[in-house]
Amino acid sequence: MVQLTMAKAITAGLTRAMDGNEHVVTIGQDIGRLGGVFRITDGLQERFGARRVMDSPLAEAGIVGTALGMAQRGYVPVCEIQFDGFVFPAFDQIVNQVSRLRFRTQGRITAPIVIRLPYGGNVGSIEHHGESPEAYFTPTPGLRIVTPSTPVDAYELIQQAVASPDPVIVLEPKRLYHSLKGEVDLDAPASGELDRARVVRLGTEITLMGYGPMMSTLLSAAKVLADEGHSAEVVDLRSIAPIDWVTVEASARKTGRVVVAHEAPRTSGVGAELAARIQERCFFALEAPVLRVTGLDMPYPPSRVETDYVPSVDRVLQAVDRALAY
Amino acid sequence: MTATNAWTPRIVGPASEPPDDPFAGEPADGIETVQLLDPDARPRRHHTYSPQLTVDEVREAYRTMFLSRRLDTEGTNLQRQGQLALWAPAKGQEAAQIGAISALRATDMVYPSYRELSMVMHRGLDPIGVFQIMRGITHATWDVEAHRMGVFAFVVGAQTLQAVGYGMGITLDGSDEVVLACLGDGATSEGHVNEALNFAAVYRAPVIFLVQNNQYAISVPTAQQFRGAPAARAAGFGMPGVRVDGNDLFAVHAVVAEAAARARAGEGPTLVEAMTYRIGAHTTADDPTRYRTRAEEDLWVGRDPLVRTERWLREQGTTDDWFTGLAAEADEVATDLRARVLALEPQGITDLYDFVLAEPSAALAEEREQVAAYIAGLEGR
Ligand SMILES: Cc1ncc(C[n+]2csc(CCOP(=O)(O)OP(=O)(O)O)c2C)c(N)n1
User: Please, what is the average pLDDT of chain A?
Assistant: First the structure.
């Protein structure tokens, strides 16, 4: 067991994946010498050489599109997109090309690539550096989208993503990169399933559901509720495409009340899918409507007011109060 | 290090090659670098271009370069002190920026990237606009139409297509304005930038693409960014490509003036590759010691555009007093700006709902009320 930050855990997971399969390569802007702007690939170029750790030209469609070509040649590329807000030049490659290759070719050609995407706000930066673009991708059949909330989870998920025969977008909560530390067993096999949600706190009265950077907020809210005498269950989705409905529905049925949180805007977000599905499937078990605590339906604001945009513990508690009042 | 056009597959390439020094030896692509004033402030004759600026104009240009550098330093300091989210230093690129913009009319539109503080100042805008963005107060502020200075663009290269479209509008209007589109060497790799170049050529849009080749994107040197330099690629798009010493105010001005004249005459776009160097870090979040050497930085510090222009001005009789006065003015401007930056407060988040749609939807109006009530509740505690 070692104590690692989320960033170092991803580095360790990626290193292990590259050690284990010489066809794993990584490509992205500034990932070589610089080690990436977040230093996730720090030391990788020295270890694996510039053949496998490639500084790319400044072009996201280029990164993802060539990764898809390399995959067709038997490589397993791990792409780094520098920031959430800069993934969109690669949109066609991701949603029209990467995601559909298996379907179009009836399984003859596949796209086992990984796209690492730092995301999320409250990082005090300028425009396009605090976004949560997951809902542009989650409705796309053929993509897997995962997001860790702890270092150990990050360590596992990146390895599972590399091992997956499907294309996987790993949304990395950048706010936690260097601020969240946790125990990681570097020798543990990364054998868990890629699309399993996890109940991270058991409770009985209400379920708080979220993923990635929201989990620490939800856990804090659960603690406050415990102090106030309420028992909240907390579910970390981990995979937002596909969603582990078994775990989600089980918790919804168990507590009868669900609050969903994410930083992305409310409209047509992952929370909308959760609310819809939960009421379709668990209607008679529900004591209250599924409530959403989300980013606002506006473009991500200037950083001096971003704390009013990103869901806070207080906003989660406000929703919990409403749900409990039914 | 000599440039090579021989294609080396990047996948087996070296870990990092320093950028080729554009002033060392013959360029492999055969495109010369126009220079009218060398780093030692000696005039250079050129077969096509000649200096167009009067001493007064140079003094005015130098003043903006000097003041913007002072504020650029202030930006870095303020960020270090936790007062700005980020700062993108422009130190070293002032001649490329001011040389280009001073060759335009005040009515010509400029599409900047995010490093063009000096251009903002040249257009008479209050530089606080840039600091508002970098402090996280607003995304984009100033009066674009009044100053013909577009808003900063943080998605690398996206502004170039819009610049071309604006130019297409000028053509449709039958006007003789031109557009200056600013971008970096790294940006030339983006697909949308290549679309912009093609559209500009196809529609003969009156656009000057000013590629400030400051040798690096973030850590990636030009030698790894492209094998065909921007000036060389221009021909493939069907437009002239001119390489110019970007630290030579006279040369940049002359080259852009000529490109603007062509554009006004309906002869279409030009790509100007201004060879320069970002003396500072990419942004305050960057650590250049990871990817470039002190020796290389020193080489370019020796080509500082301000030093060169100052020497020329002194040779033309500009007095010590004038320079001392300018330094004092810069200190005043910086002190004043600093105080105003520290006093900047953001709009409340609910005010921002005004700008999502022309008329807020019912859902937006409701969300706004909820957010306002929530915030009022917090303040009430
Ligand atoms: C589409 C996009 N991808 C990545 C980034 C992150 N990024 C910001 S600036 C930069 C390098 C830009 O280099 P260049 O175009 O040479 O301009 P310079 O910063 O040197 O002025 C990168 C990679 C971005 N802002 N936009």
Answer: 97
Residue A58 Cα: closest atom of ligand 1: 23
Distance, first Cα to last Cα, chain B: 66
What's the whole-number average pLDDT of chain B?
A: 94
CB nearest to B85's CB, from A56, A57, A124 = A124
Enclosing domain of residue A30: 2-184
Query: Among A157, A184, A211, which residue terminates a domain?
Result: A184
Burial A159-196 (b: 16+ CB within 10 A, else e): bbbbbbebbbbbbbbbbbbeebebebeeeeebeeebbe
Predicted confidence (pLDDT) per residue in A29-54, tens digit = 999 999 999 999 999 999 999 999 99
Q: Structural domain tally of chain B? A: 2
CB A64 within 8 A of CB A143: no
Is residue A94 pLDDT above 90, yes or no? Answer: yes
pTM: 0.96
DSSP, collapsed to helix, strand or coil, labels residue B288 as: helix
CB contact under 8 A, A126 and B86: yes
- Asked if residue A56 has its Cβ within 6 Å of ligand 1, the reply is no
Choose one of A184, A214, A230: the last residue of a domain: A184
Taking the centre of ligand 1 as the mean of its atom positions, its distance from the CA of residue B90, in whole angstroms, is: 14
Residue B214 has pLDDT above 60, yes or no: yes
User: Which chain B residues are closer than 8 Å to A55 by Cβ?
Assistant: 16, 219-220, 224
DSSP assignments along B99-118, one per residue:
HHHTTS-TTSEEE--S--HH
Does position B17 have pLDDT exceeding 90, yes or no? Answer: no
Query: What 8-state DSSP symbol labels residue A94?
Result: I
B290 in contact with A, Cβ within 8 Å: yes
Q: Same domain, yes or no, for A266 and A147?
A: no
ipTM at complex level: 0.96
pLDDT band at B25 (very low <50, low <70, confident <90, very high): confident
Its domain, for residue B378, covers 348-381
| Beta-carbon separation of B13 and A88 below 8 A | no
